[in-house]
Amino acid sequence: MLTKNLKFLSGVVIMTLIVLNALTATSVVRHRGSGWQVLALLLVLLAAAVVLHTRHFHRRPFLAKPKNPFKFHQVPVDRAASLQREAKKNSGELQLHEARVFAGAVVKPEQFRRRVVEEYTPSRRTLQKLATVDLDIPKRLLEAATPQHVYLPVVINQKGDLLDDFHIYEANSDETQWLSYRQYLGLAAEVLHILLLTAYRLPLGSDLPPEAEQAELLALQGIVQRRDTRAHSVVDFSGAEAVEQLQVASTSARKLAGLFVRQLTENYPIVASVHGPVGRRHRFKYQLTLMPEVKFGRSAARRWAGFFRLVFGTRPVDLNLDISNAPTCESFHLHVHAPDDLFLTRQEATGFDEALKRRAEGAPTLPHCRFRRRLGQPHAHFYCRYMPAFTESERPAIRLSFSEVPPGSVLRAAITAAAALAILWLIGFVNSRFPDPGTDAPAFLLAFPAVAAAWLGFDAPSRKLLEGTLSARLCLVVTAMLSLTGCGLFMLHKSFGQGRSWPQVPDGNSLLGITDLGWAITVALALLNAARIGYQCLVRTWQYSHLLAKEVH
After folding, report:
1. How distant, in Å, are the alpha carbons of 49, 128, 388, 397, 457 from that of 322?
2. Which of 47, 183, 295, 344 has the maximal Cβ count within 10 Å?
3. Which range has the worst mean pLDDT, 155-169, 242-256, 275-289, 414-428?
4. Measured between alpha carbons, how far is 74 from 89 in angstroms, rounded to an integer?
5. Whose CA is closest to 199, among 227, 222, 219?
6. Transmembrane ranges (predicted)?
């Protein structure tokens, strides 16, 4: 309550100082500079009050570290022991081939995923992602008889990451259910128990040696542990290391169990249940909402440009898309469906130059990547095959740049700037010779470009993530300001009439026939504004027409 009262009192002080500054400035002008010391003091006080108000009541609370409303609770140790007992009790319910299929799909997803297609559609502030996953179960993991049931991980996500608006669909686009977190933990415990029995070559339902049970308990503790994304914690792989150090009869089964535990210690899969008869090929689709990260850039110029984009209502026309799923499949496709009023101008791959020099496990060749060899359309397509696993230092991404399809906001800004230039020149030409034309019509004409700039620039805000250009909005703002400046000049000339001498262009020169200095400066700025945006409009139109007929290799 005290903070709110102080904020209100500070606002009242600032408003009072603004009014006092306006009154004092008027008095200084009226008395031809007398009393400017008081005005300077009031301006300093106003600036100090605004800085202190902004710092203490806006900047500091906004940048303060938010309080954590939820306390992080780790899973108790006895939960792993309970899972171990349940897995031992239910070890006969899950078949060996089911355990191998699930463990193999978790450890080596690239051996199961034949193709992954990711499609992105921009929304207002988000990206809608639709992914199609084609799974192919290797023959060596299936028994002679066609199995009636298997579990397959559709998505393998890092622990602690939330999936917004997540849905899984079958091949016919019917929504399907996935295992709950409790069911997944029970499945993981049963699969681990079966893999350890296989490593010791013991029949299902048998008891593991004491050292294996201890390693199994440590592994389950790592699997059930939560990850606090608010803290930089190190993943504990002691359970996986304990499994990998066991002395067993089958080293291949031990290796699979160790990799299985290591993968589930750091990640959690979203598992779908496939009921039989189970064939080799399966297709799943999943949909979720992503919030792309907005970066203004490291340099001061880029940060200020990003700030002005937000001020003038423009949004970024560049997208950085993650391709971390590329190594988890044999064939990877990425599609971006931008709005129809944008066209693709640039596409590049970043962050995995070294990965292109490595060969994936079992791949016949080095990675093969390519873009769709066409620019100038709203659709982008990236394809790669046999992509190896990325290292921790590699941050792979696809960067796409889009521009507005001509005619767009740039053409509207150019037309408005040209109209403002014509009106300003005409009225400035007449007003510099006849200060009082005997009518107020020029004032209404000068107000027209300002109204047109506001209407054309901000009339209908859309709901697209990619929209607008900063240069067009800035041009419209400058056009409106110049039009209002012209209105002010006209009213000043009309008010004083013929009895006042106005500053003229030096040495008897003129700008397009305008001799009045104020009108000459205003028309010169309007000329520069119209020339810049007109040139940019022509360049972008040429770029668009050039890209339509050009293939990019």
Report:
1. 46, 14, 15, 5, 33
2. 344
3. 275-289
4. 26
5. 219
6. 34-52, 409-429, 441-458, 470-491, 511-531
Q: How far apart are CA 70 and CA 82, in angstroms?
A: 26
For residue 132, the SS3 value is strand
Q: How far apart are CA 234 and CA 231, in angstroms?
A: 9
Instruction: Please enumerate, as own/partner, the contacts of 39-46 that have beta carbons within 8 Å and a separation of 24 or more.
Output: 42/17, 45/17, 46/14, 46/17, 46/18, 46/21
Helices 181-199 and 96-107: crossing angle in degrees, nearest 10, is: 110
Q: Within 10 Å of residue 5's Cβ, how many Cβ atoms?
A: 9
| Burial (CB count <10 Å: 0-12, 13-18, 19+), residue 412 | buried
User: What is the Cα Rg of the chain in Å?
Assistant: 34
Q: How far apart are CA 447 and CA 443, in angstroms?
A: 6
Tell me the C-alpha distance between 451 and 487, whole Å: 13
Tokens 């050292």 -> residue: 211
- Comparing C-alpha atoms, which of 125, 98, 296 is closest to residue 188? 98
Identify the top-confidence range among 19-23, 328-332, 453-457, 494-498: 328-332
**What is this structure's pTM?**
0.75
Nearest residue to 466 (alpha-carbon basis) of 407, 412, 534, 405:
405
Give the DSSP letter string of 276-319.
SS--SEEEEEEEEEE-PPP---SSHHHHHHHHHHHHTT----EE
| Edge-to-edge strand ranges of the sheet holding 164-170 | 175-176, 164-170, 281-290, 127-136, 113-122, 331-337, 379-385, 368-371
Are the beta carbons of 409 and 312 closer than 8 angstroms? no
Tokens of 65: 């570290």
d(CA 469, CA 413): 11
Q: How confident is the model at residue 177 (pLDDT cuts 50, 70, 90)?
A: confident
Structural contact between residues 119 and 325, judged by C-beta atoms closer than 8 angstroms = no
State CA 173 to chain mean position distance: 27
Q: How far apart are the C-alpha atoms of 218 and 212, rounded to whole Å?
A: 10
Least confident span in 45-59, 103-117, 293-307, 479-493 = 293-307
Which of 455, 453, 461, 429 has the alpha carbon at shortest distance from 442?
429
Contact at 8 Å (CB) between 97 and 141? yes
Phi, psi of 332 (to 5 degrees): -125, 130
Residue 397 phi, psi dihedral angles, 5° rounding: -160, 155
